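Design job #97: recover the sequence.
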């Protein structure tokens, strides 16, 4: 790297540790500026232990710090990032994959029942994603809404246990699915549920809104900055099965305009997100 220093203008570290720490160290060796991008777990989870000082050193030594949500940037500033050089750059969505689609066509293409309501979960099947609470809420919801189904996309350590719990419920575990198919699963659904205990700004929430589907999620991380209008969905506290059940029931009871949801969410695409990051990298050179 030292032999190539004349070709390097700025170093980007895309995770606070170890990437961001290494990026700051390398930038000092090369004599060029550094930008660190934080994502969520890196400064929420890794800072509760022996790595905190390394992360503080990295964020304090970076020429700029960027992240996808306001709460994440606020946390980065608490850990030492320069407030004048810390910036929110929201994630983007792929408009070719995620836009309002016909529900009936999507269900037929996926071989799903054409009638009834459908809740969709996309993510790892693990406790931190609130999948246990989701199954509990769905079981209660089923008592009053027998036409509702739950589709869970993803794999993880909790899958086998969840399948045992849901063996008598209309729950489909479809495993991992390629990203370019998620838009069709969203189109086939009536609402996305994401009851995580902690999050940054999950792409699947942005993708659901871009697809014109409301979201029921927990009030954590950057999600409240996205679900900022009742027409986009509802937020609940983490760990609350009752609150999750009630919110899903309310959202399923309302009529939703897919085009209006996508318009109200007003999400940027990945080109816009990339352009904002490029501007920060260019500014760091000056």
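Job complete. Output follows.
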């Amino acid at each position: 790297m030292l032999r190539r220093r004349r070709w390097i203008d700025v170093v980007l570290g895309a995770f606070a540790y170890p990437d961001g720490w290494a990026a700051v160290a390398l930038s000092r060796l090369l004599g060029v500026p550094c930008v660190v991008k934080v994502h969520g777990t890196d400064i929420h989870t890794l800072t509760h232990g022996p790595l905190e000082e390394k992360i503080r050193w990295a964020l304090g030594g970076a020429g700029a710090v960027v992240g996808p949500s306001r709460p994440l940037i606020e946390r980065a500033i608490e850990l030492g990032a320069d407030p004048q050089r810390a910036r929110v750059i929201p994630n983007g969505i792929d408009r070719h994959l995620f836009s309002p689609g016909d529900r009936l066509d999507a269900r037929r293409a996926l071989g799903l029942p054409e009638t009834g309501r459908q809740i969709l979960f996309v993510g790892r099947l693990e406790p931190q994603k609130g999948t246990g609470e989701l199954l509990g809420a769905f079981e209660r919801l089923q008592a009053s809404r027998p036409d509702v189904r739950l589709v869970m996309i993803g794999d993880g350590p909790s899958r086998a246990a969840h399948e045992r719990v849901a063996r008598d419920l209309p729950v489909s575990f479809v495993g991992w699915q390629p990203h370019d198919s998620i838009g069709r699963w969203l189109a086939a659904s009536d609402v996305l549920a994401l009851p995580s205990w902690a999050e940054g700004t999950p792409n699947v929430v942005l993708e659901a809104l871009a697809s014109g589907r409301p979201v029921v999620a927990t009030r954590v991380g950057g999600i409240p900055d996205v679900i900022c209008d009742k027409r986009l969905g509802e937020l609940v506290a983490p760990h609350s099965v009752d609150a999750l059940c009630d919110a899903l029931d309310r959202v399923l009871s309302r009529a939703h305009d897919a085009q209006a949801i996508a318009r109200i969410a007003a999400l940027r695409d990945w080109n816009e997100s990339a352009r904002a990051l490029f501007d920060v990298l260019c500014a760091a050179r000056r």
